[in-house]
Amino acid sequence: MPLVKSGAVTADPFVFVADGEALPQGAVIVSAARLLSGDPALAAHAGPLGVAWPNDKDVALLAPVLPRLALVALAFPKFRDGRAFSQARLLRERHRFRGEVRATGNVLQDQVLFMARAGFDAFALEKASDAAAFREALARYSVFYQPTGDGRRTVRDLRARAQELEAAE
After folding, report:
1. pLDDT at res. 10
2. Among the residues of the chain, which ranges form H helices?
3. Is 11 helix (H, G, I), strand (E, B) or coil?
4. pLDDT, tens only, 142-152
5. Residue 6 phi/psi, 5° resolution?
6. Residue 165 in this model has a pLDDT that exceeds 80
7. Of 107, 120, 169, nearest to 148 (Cα)?
8. Could you give the CA distance from residue 152 to residue 35 in angstroms, rounded to a whole number?
9. Separation of CA 147 from chain center
């Protein structure tokens, strides 16, 4: 499964570890149930830690462990189920999560720019052939009117900066 991150196809350093399996060295993704269970192996794990978070769970439950997490993988089980959009915005804006927020499941090219605007910065694709289209979709626009969780400057920011420079002349 290809991973698009920062607009480029990249190798995925994370491996998913099923509940009950021993944690290998390196970057791992565990289930929400395992993360919330207080598994002592997770506390002892020295590598980057990620969680596969279902879209029907409140991301506020992650707040106590967010400083330990390097990745939160949010699920899109169906293209018409957009709860992960809200979860990503909450993680970025309310909880100030700065790690990787990855879209998994039914990740569609038509929605990738909206996902990025909501705070997603990595996309697990089902087909390798979609990678080029995803890169193009992410690069299509560079300026936006609405502020969102991705931190990009808005038209308002650019206008204010232009006025500051004009006033300084």
Report:
1. 87
2. 32-36, 40-44, 83-89, 112-118, 131-139, 155-168
3. coil
4. 777 877 767 77
5. 55, 35
6. yes
7. 120
8. 31
9. 17
